[in-house]
Amino acid sequence: MNDVLQQTVTKMLRPLVRLLLRHGIAWGTLTDWLKRLYIETAAAEFTLEGRKQSVSRIAVLTGINRKEVKRVMDNPVATRNHQTRHNRAARVIHGWLNDPDFTTASGEPAPLRLGTGNADFAALVKRYSGDIPSRALLDELLRAGIVAQQQDGNLQLLEHAYIPCQSDTDMLYLAGDSVRDLLETIDYNLDNAGSSSRLQLSVVYDNLPHEAVERFRGLSRERATALLQEMDQFLSRQDRDSNPQSTGSGRYRAGLGIYYFEEAEDDASKT
Q1: Fewer Cβ within 10 Å of end Cβ, the chain: N or C?
Q2: Where among 31, 52, 79 does a domain terminate?
Q3: Burial of 208 (0-12, 13-18, 19+ CB in 10 A)
Q4: Which residue has the higher pLDDT, 6 or 85?
Q5: Would residue 23 count as lying in a domain?
Q6: Averaged pLDDT, 191-207
Q7: Number of domains composing the chain
Q8: Could you give the CA distance from residue 118 to residue 18 in angstroms, rounded to a whole number?
Q9: Nearest alpha carbon to residue 107 among 228, 229, 235, 218
Q10: pLDDT at 185 over 90
Q11: Does residue 118 share a domain with residue 48?
Q12: Is the dihedral angle over the CA atoms 195, 198, 199, 203 positive or is it negative?
């Protein structure tokens, strides 16, 4: 089992190590991050029922000495949450795609003026993003290449999803969310074998010609985008931020992620 686990973790970590090296992160820095993560995870998720988690137990679980465990726990690191800005941008785009006040008669996203009327960009932002200034959100969407300003001053929606591809920082945040969500699903399914599992499917072939991969790249983007737009419409009707009339108990985060991959088998790692 340890051999299988080592091979599995190595496969998971190889792209991460490549990313770290590309950004100049040395081994010592990663070990510091991992040390803190081991301690925080053990403290939060591996408690004994009815007992307060102790420094000694965390040391036993992690193999890190008690002095170092206490030092890390006494110096928490504040985390920055980018999810609010991402969610606000995504909600605005959803409204632009689906709200009749901001779409054409044929159901396409209408060109919008920036102004302060009842069916312009400012009204769209106010309806779907609360108190964030419309100019600030527009700057973000323009920077990300999701919206363009035409010669007549109208704003045109270019993309149907908020993917901040022009910002390394935003893409790193997005990468963290996406990989975390996938690994959370994998961990859940491994820990709940035999019970109801979460959706975790893929389709892979490894002897494809270049021409077929090019066709599949376009086909997968088209079909996946359509599916995600359908799921987005369902979830937005249930989400209490997007639809205050939605009722129900508790508060959950849920979604569906789709990713595309390809590699030349001659160059692919065999580990």
Answers
A1: N
A2: 79
A3: middle
A4: 6
A5: yes
A6: 89
A7: 2
A8: 49
A9: 229
A10: yes
A11: no
A12: negative
pLDDT-above-90 percentage for the chain: 59
- Secondary structure of 14-78 in HEC code, one letter for each residue: HHHHHHHHHCCCCHHHHHHHHHHHHHHHHHHHCCCCCCCCCHHHHHHHHCCCHHHHHHHHCCCCC
Find the length of the chain. 271
71 and 1 part of one domain = yes
Residue 165 has pLDDT above 60, yes or no: no
Residue of 201, 197, 181 lying closest to 189 (CA atoms):
197
Residues 131 and 69 in one domain: no
What's the pLDDT tens digit per position in 9-25?
Answer: 999 999 999 999 988 89
* Lowest-pLDDT choice from 44-53, 107-116, 199-208: 107-116
* Range of the structural domain that residue 34 is part of: 1-79
pLDDT of residue 267: 57
pLDDT at position 269 is 46
